[in-house]
């Protein structure tokens, strides 16, 4: 059971909830904070105070006063009108993460929402009822309005959800699990949709997948080094300490550990004096991507515990302040940066694939073919990898440098952070496929060199991977191999264990 406070949620806990299906509860302290801020909202409504989003319209309509009798209608109108996302639904794990992150933000007690509304968010998580949320339509400022509105529709019994693998009307799913929708009161609709939880949820999923993939990139590169009889001297600790980047030092150390008892790697001067950059510079390039991951992790750990509502209610001071914490610029930059870092892992992987299959660059059979000429072998797998890295270069163009004014220029600068996060997600999927292709080719290459001469770690990785994809003995539909290996990478974590 994960207890949320709005203060100390971790990425590991998000992982447990999203992938491990851990249940979630609200802390007693958060309940007290939310109740106090709710009392202040109700006082403002009762007194007829002019407060943005409570007794006024939204965006350009912020100067329109709303009568006390209409505040509930204002909130449901807000949710319905803002639920105008388009495109394919976000992955189910993103929807689940959105529920958790929005509940955690509201648990901070700055939003004036009733405890029962936040509890319903947690009930949806605990019953595995996940809103169907279109992936497109957010500008990433004023919050992720459209995606969060689709999430909020479920709380009032509207929209659609995924439950037990089926898409259905929310009303039907709530009835099956014994939950009842809520009627939104003053400010509650705004509190639900004014935040960065769509881009941040995608960002968290991106980070969790990217971290696993970065470890796998180091491991797969080790098999490639054996397949190409790479020179281990380039991974000497002194070389990397001399540069000073701890991430680079760590990658080199992992490679040395993976290959510590290999008979396939060489020393400088034995076969050649130095390797091409795609082999020799693995620590420098992979290490730089690890630096990106460190930056992204830091920003996500802040954002998943951030108050991103507007206005914010400070009960101790009796203040209600309209600000801009909903602006997604920090996450927009982080997601653009993540996309660039993962695109480079794919770029250098594709170059290693080329070295594995190109007979002008190695002494292996051309294209790793069992019968060169009659059998094409891995020739077109390299084409596929090249296409994926080219696509990534387009996706890695930063979304955060763009802005289009909205709401009649009241909201005149936006982050496009959700677009950056979505692009990052696609880059990660492409990068995984590229690394799957490298793994398939590396497995074939080490067979030619002699499996018995592999390092203990890489031989274990070889055996595990061979249970997923067989050796290339003749041409076949390699798309199925790539798909199986990519699925394996997504689910397996490390390719082998270190003794």
UniProtKB/TrEMBL annotation:
The keyword Lyase applies. Its EC number is 4.3.1.3. The modification 2,3-didehydroalanine (Ser) is found at residue 142. It catalyses: L-histidine = trans-urocanate + NH4(+). Pfam families: Lyase_aromatic. Keywords: Cytoplasm, Histidine metabolism, Lyase. InterPro entries: Aromatic_Lyase, Fumarase/histidase_N, HutH, L-Aspartase-like, Phe/His_NH3-lyase_AS. It is found in: Cytoplasm. Its main location: cytoplasm. It comes from the Bacteria. It is an enzyme of class 4 (lyase). Contains an active site 4-methylidene-imidazol-5-one (MIO), which is formed autocatalytically by cyclization and dehydration of residues Ala-Ser-Gly. The keyword Cytoplasm applies. There is a cross-link at residues 141-143 (5-imidazolinone (Ala-Gly)). Pathway: Amino-acid degradation; L-histidine degradation into L-glutamate; N-formimidoyl-L-glutamate from L-histidine: step 1/3. GO terms for molecular function: histidine ammonia-lyase activity. Belongs to the PAL/histidase family. This is Histidine ammonia-lyase. It comes from Caldalkalibacillus horti. The gene is hutH.
